[in-house]
Amino acid sequence: MRNHKIIGLTGPTGSGKSAVAKYFEENGYKIIDADKIAREVTSKGSPCLKTLTAVFGKEILNEDNSLNRKILARIAFSTKENTQLLNDITHPFVYLKVIKIANEYIANGNTKIIYDAPLLFESNGELLCDYVISVLCSKEQRIKRIMRRDNIPLEQANLRINAQHSDDFYKNKSDFCIDNNSDLENLHVNVQKILTEIR
After folding, report:
1. What pLDDT is recorded for position 199?
2. What is the 3-state secondary structure (H, E, C) of 30-80?
3. 3-state secondary structure of 163
4. Angle, helix 34-41 to helix 80-107, in steps of 10 degrees
5. In the chain, N or C: fewer CB atoms in 10 Å?
6. CA 72, CA 160: separation in Å to the nearest integer?
7. Residue 14: which H helix or E strand, with range?
8. 3-state secondary structure of 180
9. Residue 57: which region, alpha, beta or left (left: phi > 0; alpha: psi -120 to 50)?
10. What is the 8-class DSSP label of residue 84?
11. What is the pLDDT of residues 129-177, one digit of tens each?
């Protein structure tokens, strides 16, 4: 019988997953950050980056042969086909590392783990999880957050949002949904309710 819980945390870009993950961390959960892992598996010279370069071209590379993430994002989010290609290439590399980190946490006695993954369902990451929480908020809020966070123009922010699923997609696949259209205090109240239920 499992003596640990892995909670999947997902939602569309700009919904505020990081704030939710931080609150879980403050309540004793270990965080596995899929975005951080994706940066690691696409480091200079990595098999994943070599595959991305073969598919999307050398223009995604900086002069030092490291990944230019803005250029890759612009190309990858330009069409649904390119977005799917990006996911098909990167997900297996990320997934293997997630399993490795989770096993290390569990071996060290950490029984509460948050898997923070924007593309949790697309990568079948929910199969690792006991529960899945989706963070949702309005398109307007998300656009503002993405533009501020990534320092990109409105057009690129819209491309990223349009490449993702509707709120109903997340609602239908999740055990819990958090509405993050209000302030941080209200967000913490909503997360605490879920914490109480899954303990």
Report:
1. 78
2. EEEEHHHHHHHHCCCCCHHHHHHHHHHCHHHECCCCCECHHHHHHHHCCCH
3. coil
4. 110
5. N
6. 12
7. none
8. coil
9. left
10. H
11. 999 999 999 999 999 999 998 899 999 888 888 888 899 999 999 999 9
Whole-prediction pTM value?
A: 0.87
Query: What's the length of the chain?
Result: 199
Reported as a single tens digit per residue, the pLDDT across 30-87 is 999 999 999 999 999 999 999 999 999 999 999 999 999 999 999 998 888 999 999 9
Tell me which residue of 80, 34, 75, 78 sits closest to 52, measured CA to CA: 75
Q: Where are the beta strands (DSSP E) in the chain?
A: 5-10, 30-33, 112-116, 131-136, 176-179
| Token pair belonging to 110 | 């950490």
User: Which token pair is 85?
Assistant: 């290609």
Q: Which of 199, 73, 194 is nearest to 135 (CA)?
A: 194
Structural tokens at position 161:
């949002």
Q: Cα angle vertex 169, ends 198, 120, to 5°?
A: 60
Strands 30-33 and 112-116: parallel
Q: Measured between alpha carbons, how far is residue 90 from residues 59, 66, 69, 86 in Å?
A: 18, 16, 13, 6
pLDDT confidence bin for 180, thresholds 50/70/90: very high
CA distance 92 to 40: 13
Query: Residue holding tokens 């965080």?
Result: 31
DSSP state of 42: T
